[in-house]
Specification:
Layout: E1 7-11, H1 15-28, E2 40-44, H2 51-55, H3 63-75, E3 80-83, H4 92-98, E4 103-104, H5 106-117, E5 121-125, H6 128-133, H7 135-142, E6 146-148, H8 152-167, H9 171-187, E7 192-195, H10 199-206, E8 215-216, H11 218-238
Parallel strand pairs: 1-2, 1-3, 3-4, 5-6, 5-7, 7-8
Helix pairs in contact: 1-11, 5-11, 8-9, 8-10, 9-10
Length: 239
Amino acid sequence: MSRPFLLGVLGGMGPLATLDFQHKLLEATPAESDQQQLPSVVWNVPQVADRQKALAGLGPSPLPQLLQGIEKLNQAGASHIVIACNTAHHWYDALSRASAAPLLHIVDATLESLVVQKPQRVGIIATKGTLEAGWFQRGFAAQGIEAVEPTPEELAEWFVPGCYAVKRGALREGGVLLSLLADALLARGAERLVLACTEVPVALRAVAASSLAQSLDPAQALAQRCAKIWLAQRHSYLA
């Protein structure tokens, strides 16, 4: 017998991005009362080892802590699980094997939203680990979309310091740096931007970046996918 719908959110990477994802869940779920909102349980534990440093060989793997979060979400009764961090999807396969509840992939949700817009060239703002993994690029290629990626210099000068500025609470500082990267990708011909790091939308909103109008937030796409699953089942919970 399947579990009643309860979304498990594997978060803490970082904690602000997890709170932002929870807000996106509320925005994505049409509701006229508290009872109609999407039920969720959140593992927002920021002590997970740094994903960027792990993939660069400069720190320990976060996998043991991620597995602990997956275990706790399953124990809490989650029927579906999402990872509120793009880079942490590097360990998606191992986490899926350890989970009784299915894990929804952020790239699948992003492509579902992106193909409706039919762009030909899409810029990706993401960690080096996410870019090297190639999840988004392969998905784009399957849809006939060309990926526009940051240069190593842009990652070093704008993305990395911008991302870590958000993590220490300096949102405007991070927003200024990440806006420079967004504008550079648009100048190189990107018609849309995929903000494939959960700190980026938070930072760009802090400075009201004009590039937001041409951007797609994977976390928002994932929230919309979760809301769609919930809405298909909600009537049975409220009958």
